[in-house]
Amino acid sequence: MILRDIVERSPAAPSPPAPPQPPAPSTSAFPPALHRSQRPKTSAFSRARRDESTRSSGGQVLGEGRIVESVPPVGLDAGRSAGQSASRLSAPRDGVSESDYERIRREVDAENTAWVEGMTEEERVTEMQELQERFGPGLIELMRKRRAARQGAVSSTVQGGGPSTITNLRNDGVSYRSEADEVYAEVDEENRVRVEGMDVEERQVEIQELQERFGSAVLDALRKHGEARLQSRISTGASGSTLAVSASHEHANAQAGPSTLQEHIDDTSPSALKAKYFSSVPSEPEKLAWLQPAAPSSEDTSPRFDLSGALVSRSASAALPTHLGLHHHGDSPDLAGYTVQEVLHLCQSTVPSQRITMMGVLCKIFARQYVVKPDKDNGGVDDVARVLKEEQAREKAVGLALEVIMSSRSVGLLRAAIELQYTALGGPTWTWLDDMSSRVLPFRPDDLSSPITSFPFEDLLPRLDELLATRDFLPPISVQQVARILRRAATFSQDLADAVCPIVPNLIKTHVCQVSWPPHQGRSQGQAPSVEALRLLRDVVVSSRACAEAIAPAGILEPLLKFVVTVTWSADGVRSSNETGLELAMETLRLFLTLGRYGMSSNFATSAQDLWTRLSTYTSSLLARDRSRSEKELVEVYFDLLGVWTVCAIDPHRTTPEHDLTWAQISAKGWADDAIAVVGALMRRQEFGGELGSVLGMLGAWAVGLGVNGVAGGVEERQSLTKALRVAGLNEALKASTLDGEPGWDKVVYAAVRLHNLLSCGSESVLDSTLLESLIQQNLYNPAAAAPFRYELLQAASSATKIDPSIWTQNAFSIMTCFQPGTEPLALELLDQLLRSDWAAAFPSLQGLFAQLGHKDGVQLLRPLLQYAIQPGLEHLLAPELPIPTPVYLKVSTTLRPTGETSSFSESSFDPPVAPSVAGLPLSPDWVFSPLDELLRSADSEPLKQAPPDWTPSELEIVRATLLLAKARLLSDGTDTSTKHEPISRSSVILGAMKVFMLEHQTSTAGLSGSDVEVFRDPLVADLLHDLIEPLTRLPSPHPGSADPTPPAPASPTASKEAVTSAPLEIAARSFLGDLPFYQWYTDYLSLFSSISFGDSAFAQLILPPLSMAYPSDYRRSLWVDNATSLRLIRTPLSQVPLESPRGVLEFFEPREEDEQVLVAYATALARGWVSPRQEALYVIAGHHVAGYIWDGQGEKRKAVLGTLLAGQGEVVRQVLHQDAETPLEGRPVPGEEFNGGRNWYESYWARKVLLAALPPCHRPVIPVD
């Protein structure tokens, strides 16, 4: 091995070793410590100047070596001739003398020669074998050739040269032959021999192959090089056979195929360019395909997008130039733009910049889908939405973004991934998250197919916690988007709120609490505390009490108070009363307001007394001038918070922890006096917005506390408060106000009426009778008004005016169905008042029935069962709405966020009811039948298990009271002329009556005393069932407000009947049956009818509604096929059929029946006499469908129906198939094809009779009857 970087230097004369010297005397055991200033040193600049001077003088710097560019050859012949060796060595460089090279070569050569000469023949053979095994035979042969070549070159040089010797001339005039020349000569000799053995055609083929392999440029260079060598040899006088052969060979190569070579001199093909400029690179044609012209992609019709996410039309995609950057190596490289599939693929690129760009494009595509309207020119957004759905783009985008978030540390990639995650989840559509009011938004599980339902929060949250641990790591926009994603999860369901809660405290500490506030002059807005993070904190607390209990002791509440303090600072200090400061202060107050509704963290009312005093002074100063919207909201939130803390102090046992705030503590703070002063200031400015409503709500809570904790019920305090409000001018200002309908007005009048009811304890009242009467007339009978407001007006009307009992009951029933979750205390109070009301005065016609109930408590015995319908349990109890009427629910509330499901208002009793998915508020219109539900599931009924021990009514008494309450409810619907409210649907009444009969299907009544006979055979129960069903047999007068009294036109008789999946009774039964199909329940009803009914008329009437054509044919088969033996027991006239549709009995005749089994069953029942004209309803229905199918039916089914019918009595056949009364059909052939579609069954006498009987008298057409 040859080492280039080692330089031998002549060693200096060695110095004799010196004996060791003893250490210098020292007073300590260790060497003295020297400061670096006491040590001798040379500066770096001085050392650099010294080293540069050494280099310039040819010296060597310490630590640096000298590179040897040329190394003398080492070989066996190194010492043969000094002159010959000198001719083979390159000139020495860098100051190394000629004698050094010669000396090294001679020493190595002499050493090798002596070593070889000292070997025996066997040792030499052994060494040769080892070298051959180690390096191979090729290397040994090459070394022999080189030695022979060197020896030949030396001898020819001594003799003056030969004809086959090619020499080089050195600077010193000595010619020599290099090793490269020797190898070249050998290769040249081999090529010459090979070419001489070729003919002209073989040479031409070889040249072509070389040209294809290396290109024309290389061959042209070789040809010129050959010609130059030939001319050089001729000029030097070279002769001999070898030279002649070489000359003739190279001349032949130069002259062979000149036209072929010339054709490729200017070739610019990819292969020629590669051969010319990249000849050493391996040839890979597939990687050069992009250089070829792109093939047209006429079949590609996928929507394509530019880099801004805009849709590129097909015409523009084909016409846009390539320099715009929209063409790429996709499936259609000739088309500009990117398809959704290509964008998703490029989002996985290994190039970060490309990945970021494509994720941004995908974000813009999603964002445009939320806001851009369809474009008629390019297929529009509908096509894009379809492609996004087919490609599952949202789900894939969520997965791609999640992968980046979980694995990447690049801030750019993380920012793009978070934005993609936010957009793919639907972030731009979450505008309702921007509602900055104190109003609590309901849970919004509006899209159960949303990717957020399957989002792996348990895996993502630890990673987000890591990314958000450093405040400046992610940009503010990314932090905001992460917070909004977590907010969406918190408002989706209570379970997701509990899942995201653990990350919230650290997020608040890092991005809110640890951020200095207020900002100094010149600080950028991006460094402000994150308002979105504060909103996230409030959202999780609103959604779950468990989150509130986890966050309250987390140590983040106290630092948040700085935002409330700084908003009150005066202008001479650092002013923070800007929009950001107000938002931070309001979010902090809303957070404490939310915690207070759970009865938590109320101790801050006393521990931060100076803060609230300062804030009270600040709010009072705001009322003296014009205020911005944010400042008005700040005053509103502040008094809402005081009202909640007042409720917490009413009963200290309801707070968490107990006695966290007491009435004695807040009585000394003077909150009521401050509130009255604010009312006076607002009245003077004639302002009736949300501020006044919050102040009056706080005074309402104070009035409730006076009644509980005041002396003698707080009579004196309440009278003083009433006088103060009269002095403040509240009554006169409300009477003079014309702001009805303005924002905040409803809140003001509701709080005022509630305060009036709470303080009415003497001659003085907050509102006079004139104002009350006006408010009652405007809002009590208006179902659009909020239920709590109508409730307070009803209470005021009961105490201040003489209201008619029937009107009071009617409004009470109406308000009961309007209560929303969070108003359970008011609903329970109104229920008690309703059950205790004077029913005889409200409904004189029911006086005798109430006397027959047989229970001392009357309908009040239903109280435990109806209370459970309003408030089914405490596991998922919603906190009461503001203003909170009672502190009872503070400690047991599990959430502040309602479910968002409300009952739909129906203007007609025919509209199918919308059943709530869970028990509780809002009540469905048929809530009066809920006690029957508990009886039907008595074995597992919670209210029956939880009933007090002294509650012991019998099953019969519960049924009687329930039916009587339902009858009163229906009567209130019938007398409702002043307003329209949601009545009980006809389907719900039918279902409620069916429940009475299905009680006989039960085997246990959970300890209730039963009766010896069936419940439906009780005379009072039978009369009440008749009273409930009888109104359903006739079409009512049009509902108030209905524009068109005419029933809708019937469907075409020939229209095909599709299976109906949402029949009226099926919808009405959902809340009661749950997952059990109504069809199964109906079959149980039919079985029960067959076994115990004995033809009871009411029992039979309720079988008929599911037989109409609005229901699937399965219901008709269950009676006519599976329970045909029960047909004889149903003797209901057509006029007594319960009607569910405004079309009346036409619903049973149109469209025509097409089910073969049902048609055959109709014909069988008619032919065998199972139904007769005495069973009018079943008889005319079966005859109608059989006759219509015989005349207009086709094929074998028609023959089967007709054949079954013809097996019956002749009179029955004549009545069904009657065309001519004087021409019987007995013995005549079956009507042929000429009757198919040509003879309309409406022309028959039978059909006319059916239609005339079906239509109401006022709508019967004038049809001549034969």
From TrEMBL:
Reply yes or no: does the keyword Nucleus apply.
Answer: yes
RPAP1 C-terminal domain location is 304-368
Subcellular localization, as worded in the UniProt entry: Nucleus
Q: Where is the RPAP1/MINIYO-like TPR repeats domain?
A: 1078-1193
Per the record, the major location class is nucleus
Q: Does the keyword Lipid biosynthesis apply?
A: no
Q: Which GO terms describe its biological process?
A: transcription by RNA polymerase II
Bias (Pro residues) ranges? 13-25
Q: Please state what the protein is called.
A: RNA polymerase II-associated protein 1 C-terminal domain-containing protein
Provide the species name: Saitozyma podzolica
